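yo

u said u wanted the structure for the complex thing, so here. seqs first:
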Amino acid sequence: MFRWILGGREAQGSAEKSPVLCIGEEQPKNCFTELQVLKGHFDIVRFLVQIDDFRCASAGDDGLVLVWNIETGERLQELRGHSQQITAITTFTCDNGVTSHTSLITASSDRSLSLWDPDTGNRVQTISDLQSPVKCLLVLERLGVWVSGGEELCVWNKDFQLQCHRQNHSDTGITALIELPKNCLAAAMDKEIVIYRLTFSTDSSLSVAEIRCLSDHQDQIRALINVNDGLFASGSHAGELILWDAVDWNILAYEHILWEESQTCAQSEIRLAAPKPSEMSIQHLTTNGKHILAAVGSGLYVYSVLTKTVVAYRKVAHDSNVLHTMLLSDSALMSCSEDGSVRMWEIQDLPLPAEPASAGFFGMWTFGRSNKQTGPPSKKVVDVPNIRTLELTGDLIGHSGAVQMFVSFKENALVTCSTDHLLILWKDGERQSHLRSLALFQKLEENGGL
Amino acid sequence: MIGSPDVVAFTKEDEYGETSPDPWALPEEFSIPLHPLADSNPWAKTSYAKFTKDFILISEFSEQVGPQPLLTIPDDSKVCGTFDLNYFSLRIMSVDYQASFVGHPPGTGYPRLSFVEDSRVVLGDSKEGAFAYVHHLTLYDLEARGFVRPFCMAYVSADERKIMLQFQELSLRFSRASECLKAGNRRAFAKELQRKLRDLEYTHSVLQREEGLQREAGPQCMYSAHAVEKANELANVEKSIYEHRDLLKQISSYHHRPRRDPHAVSCQKCVTECLSECEVLLDKYAKLANPFSYSDKGGKGEEGQGRVGDERGEEEVDEEEEEGVKRKLSYTPQLIKAKSAKCFDKRLKTLQELCDNTFYEATVELLKETEKSFRGDLCYLYTRRLDRALRRKQKVTNFLFEEDLGDDDEDEGGTMRPFCALNHAVDNYTLLNPPPIVLEPELLELDTLEPPNPPSETGHAQEFCELGLVERHLDSSPSDQTLTTQESSEETKGSFSSDKSGMGPAERQQNLASMMSEAPDPDSDLTPDAEHNTDLERDSSSEEVETTAGDDEGDQTPVSLLEVSELEASREDECDGGADGPCEIESDLLVPIDTACCMSQDGFLYEASAPEKVPHLSQNSHSQPGQTLVVNQEPQAQLPLQDDYTVGSPSSESPAAGLELPVGLLGDAVSRTSAEDGSDCTMSASTGSDRAASPLGYGGVVTLRQRKKAGQGALRFVRQYPFAMQALWCLLSGRTLVVLGADEGRVRRLVAALALFVPAPGRCGERVQAWLSCPFTLTDLQRWKLIGLQRVATPVGSSMLYSLSRYSRYISILDADQKTLRCPPYRGQLLANIADHRTYIRRGSTYFLHLQSTLCRLAAKAFLFTFTHHLHLPVSSTEGPEVVEGRRRCFLQEQLGLGEEDSLILLYLSQLITQQYLQPGRSSAAATFSFNYTTSVFYKI
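structre next:
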């Protein structure tokens, strides 16, 4: 496209090798026609959390937590206190009947935990002498406690008092935590998922006990999510996606996602020839209860929970690893990647079923594992008519570094954060212009004329 | 006040003769013109003046030598050339403006100071080709006859109408200068009086002592001739003391006196200061109640010391008096001789001595500024003023394409500056040298005022002084304005008619600038010299002579002259009325009138641009209906907008009619003329009218010049690149344009030219980056709308190319080296008018004006679109957004006749207006960055 700029002397080779699809500049379905660059961080911005309908907090390697108004792009608060990078951030909502107040809990590499009031910017509570840095946080609002995971598992109450803790023996420590029914927790530690149970004694003291250790993954677990009340899912570095029963912790489905070059290869060969692990590493899992969206390497994989089958996939959705994904609706999804772009996808039926599929049509390959018989056998036959395609409907280009994460505020805005230290607020230009018109006439009325 | 028309009418009789042609006179072609160039050239009038530029002359009527020139501003011998200043001084001083009433009026025992109001006269000397606004004033001098010294300040110009039509402004500015001089003079006079009083007291004491000695000597001496003489002398001195004390009283009560002069400037602050000053004085006066108490102290002083330490002495005295006569005197009072010297023996004080030096300098500064602000010809001054007046009314959309009015405001304010800044100047001065004067009001001011501003700064102090006055001098009287426009329309026509030869003054000036080592003043390009030079340089076609002759005829219409006198009469009435109460005019009045000006001017222009000679009467009758029409219609636009917005149906024209009327008419006119014949001549004529109507880009002279130069670049761009229209569309629709090139100068020039098209470029062009040699980021795109980018063949270059391709969806790329453009396709017609590479416009300044008028129309449309309620919001609750959307599209397409892509321009401008209206303080650069996803195409030459 830019050959003319180079004056005809360029060697445009590498770009054409990768079959990354390019949507071009005409994107009628892309409604994000307005953007605002939010500056404030000095290092990689890794986390975004939504505080309420119009606020969001960002945190990153500079140890700063910034609170933004996404309607105006204004920086509301600057929460300073951590001396090292933020490793986890979550919101903590206190609902005392009439009013609910949302606070922020942050964990940092400086081995401290802090509770912030995003309204005032005050550091309400802080604990700074932890033995090890916290890697993940989980708020159990029902119980009024929250859990921090790292090399040890600690349970805290609202007032930042340690209720109980449990040392782990794993080197890597807890990388992910989810809440399960019956006061249970699932923690991902290296290749295992450990189920803990919280028990309240009669004197209202709390204890935590390890109940079960699920070690079905063959590689490090990268993602652990709740699917719905009865299911949770985990994904590993080797591309294994396991669906678990949330109550009795049995495997309901096992998928080994392998991006396959060609349909003709034998199974064993495929596994042996499976290229770099990052190409099939499940970086991120997201779900809306019906579908699970997995970011596998630089590709996307949509799995139906109901039918336990793949719905749609695209092996090369981005130029580089996909870092974060989201299911916007049943048919629309969004992903961001190390290549600096955010892409919007639509799950579409194949235009013509008879049309010959692309080479990667059967790239996804599932099989049952013989040594683990707990789960129902996976389908070996792929239902061709059920496979639909992921069509790119738009992409957002703005960041000059990897897009770490994004948060959607529905129709109001989309916030992305990136390694280029920036946040970008993407908005629907038409909607914004309508809102501005409203404001204009309101002001006109207040002023009583021009 | 003497009506100036009388004087002028007297001097202008030759022109009257000319304009009522004698039926028996020879046909024009057989007559030998007196001044060959005079009749064919609109600048003919100025051609035979012996000076090249307007200047300010200060003269005095010396009681010793009669009228004599004192100084000129600018103080440059070249300015006056061979012009005889002595003779002209005689002319202007010979007007006996108001007999100074001096001496003993019946009923009073003491001489009275005459408080003479200034007078303003317009004088002409047709032989010399010089006309002058003359401002007479009197200053007090204790040694002068009747204590007064008549002076005058004159603004001398070769263009009589310039003076006539700028009368109000000139009068105001000169009044200010005069007030400044007089204030200083009063101070100096009081100082002098006090010294005199001191001397008298001393003399009195000496005489008393002598008398006492005589008395001691014995009664036989009592009645000797000598003793009688002494006694008489003593009585005389006593009388003199009383007289001088009375004078002091009079001068200090100056401010209590009612002013009849409507232009007399009295800053409220100064009045209060002067009142307190008077109190101080009166206190002091009471202290000196016994004038003879002085004798003990000063008596022993050596009398021989004389006038050596005069200057020092007075300082000392004042200081000493301030401190309550405690310190030992270093000033030796003079013994006053019984008989004063003859008036021809003494040296008269200079103007500088008459006024306090600080005041004198401030006045000169003020006059210099006046001279500066009146540079340029009448047409220029008028269009600039119209511009400003109209742009003040266009606050909402001004930011889009026009230069910031902020400096204009300062400029306007600058006229007030020295008057009040004077005080500040004195402040500073007194900090350096302790104030030598008792009657120093600034001493009081020191602690009550904010930190003193240096006079070079634009004072804001003047803002709270005389606000009404500013208003008044801006607005001036309606009748004045009406006349003004007629005059200026002729002027416009006149100056633009010269454009037919293919070169405009501005560009001519540019051309000249390259030839002449010293570039002429931007405003002086209309002076006869430059004009003649270029007249000789270019070969003037016969038709040019024809048309300009016609125009020249129009210039000297008796009708306009009659109206001048009418105007003067009406203004006199106005001023008389205004003298009683505050002479303020409702600011609302201004707009209809101004627009009326434009409209009438508009009609006038097309009338006048007809090649045949138009009868004067019909000219007049043509201009009148236009005015009444507009005056009738315009108030609709003055209604609050909401009234117009409560319209249900999109097809309802009424808000559009009310709001868009002037622009629409002008627009039609423009398109009509350009359709009829696309020659540069009519184009320039119509832009001339539009220029008056659309106040665009007249911030400062320098920037105007720069922008005109940029206009040349833009014209070159438009003519050179067939895809210029697409590039302009990108800029106007808010898509960032990157100009890519290896040669910095070339890219910078291109950017400077294209910057004219960037809407809301910011106060200092923040949204334009002329030269960037590093890869740009998204933040840059949000900030800049026009970027000049260096093309380099280094790793930096490749990363730059990467950023270009990465952000290609947000930008259009103009390759200056290979002359290509990559941008979304544009097929609209809106910009065809300004981006036609076959345009007949040849000059940058003409194109600039053309451009400004087009952009102004766009801005007006965008304004209408933005503030029309039903185009954005549902009229009733049952309407959905799609109805509103449909209505908006209908409005854009059918009522404004804009296509899809042209609508984008309007939407973008509207968005800018909305943002600006909602957040006036915030610059648009901080706002969001909008774009749309469209494919780009690739244009080549």
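The mean pLDDT of chain B is 63. The CA atoms of residues 267 and 466 of chain B lie 6 Å apart.
cya
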